[in-house]
Specification:
The protein has helices at about 1-10, 15-40, 45-65, 90-100, 115-120, 125-135, 135-140, 180-190, 210-250, 255-275, 300-325, and strands at about 70-75, 145, 150-155, 160, 165, 190-195, 205-210, 285. The chain has about 325 residues and is of the alpha+beta class. Among the domains are: about 35-60 and about 305-325, no CATH class; about 70-80 and about 110-225 and about 280-295, Bacterial polysaccharide co-polymerase-like (2-Layer Sandwich), CATH 3.30.1890. Strands 6-7-1-8 form a four-stranded antiparallel sheet. The chain has a two-stranded antiparallel sheet with strand order 2-3. Strands 4-5 form a two-stranded antiparallel ribbon. It is a multi-pass membrane protein.
């Protein structure tokens, strides 16, 4: 009877374990969080030691990184007064008349000359010719330090002997002591940037190097070489067009058709003459390359901060992992 009365007096007694369970879970979570901070606090000296090692290492690494200088030039697409070379450029003007003569001049469309010049500048063939013509392979692949006192470049003695002009690096086949043009292209692609602004159409050419003078010189050479390369291509196309038109003249006796063909040859001759007298054929220099006085990289302060943060995070993870492994 007494038990029944107690049950009646406490009708919710049977539900008490379920009512107190959420509070117990919250307490467990709080204890786990306290335990976590306790573990970190107990391993504070290990965390400090590892973080200090990473901090010192990042400082040493940042100090040993050589300064890299960046020189750039701002270019504008040159106006093509002659309307471009080749028969394709003449199709819009003389396409109808030429079709009456049975001559196909091709479509008037084509790749934008500025964009084509940019892609040519990035190509393997142009880069290989640039490296070989200017003999810059040692400065590209073996440069170790720039001496500001005498404006000279020191080379890695294990890679290149400047006195004997001999490559000494040890590599496995199929590579050779002297770097191939494929290797040189990969390295050159890392230090050159050619970008065109979509809103203005301006083109920026930049080069990064240990020596600020070398960076400036390479930018100037790149601009001059791409102008010359595109000029030679248009002249060669115009000459082929002239040869084709002259062949067509010999195959017809109709006076009107011959007049059209002579007009087309005249246009090609103008293209060749225009190219020969113009140095800035594709790009006009708006802001020439300069010798930079300040380094572009490395960002030594950022390297030190990131290295220290990485060390701290790894140290905390190590302390926690060690604790939970021992606990299990």
């Amino acid at each position: 009877m007494m038990n029944n009365k107690n049950k009646q007096l406490n009708p919710d007694a049977q539900f008490q374990p379920y009512a107190t369970q959420p509070m117990g879970s919250a307490q467990d979570d709080e204890i786990d969080l306290r335990e976590l901070f306790s573990v970190i606090w107990q391993g504070k000296w290990l965390i400090i030691a590892i973080t200090a090692v990473f901090a010192i290492g990042s400082v040493i690494f940042a100090i040993n990184q050589p300064n890299i200088y960046k020189s750039e030039a701002l270019l504008a697409p040159a106006d093509s007064e002659q309307g471009g070379g080749g028969l394709g450029a003449l199709a819009g003007q003389f396409g109808g008349l030429a079709s009456m003569a049975g001559i196909n001049l091709g479509g008037g469309g084509g790749v934008d000359k500025t964009q084509m010049a940019i892609e040519v500048m990035k190509s393997r063939q142009f880069t290989s010719d640039f490296i070989q013509n200017h003999n810059i392979l040692p400065d590209l692949m073996a440069a170790k330090k720039w001496n500001i006192a005498d404006n000279s470049i020191s080379y890695d003695e294990d890679v290149y002997n400047a006195a004997d002009n001999k490559w000494l690096r040890e590599v496995q086949l199929p590579f050779k002591p002297e770097p191939s043009m494929q290797e040189a292209y990969k390295e050159f692609s890392k230090i050159i940037a050619v970008n065109a602004a979509k809103d203005t159409g301006m083109v920026t050419v930049s080069v990064e190097h240990l020596s600020p003078q070398v960076a400036q010189q390479w930018v100037n050479w790149l601009v001059a070489d791409i102008n010359n390369e595109m000029k030679q291509r248009d002249v060669a196309e115009a000459n082929r067009s002239k040869a084709f038109l002259q062949t067509q003249i010999q195959q017809t006796n109709v006076a009107d058709i011959r007049t059209i063909l002579y007009k087309l040859i005249e246009e090609q001759t103008k293209t060749i003459m225009f190219a020969e007298v113009r140095d800035e054929y594709v790009f006009k220099t708006i802001d020439p390359a300069f010798v930079p006085e300040e380094k572009a990289k490395p960002k030594r302060a950022l390297i030190c901060v990131l290295g220290t943060m990485l060390g701290g995070m790894l140290a905390v993870m190590l302390v926690l992992i060690r604790y939970f492994v021992r606990k299990d």
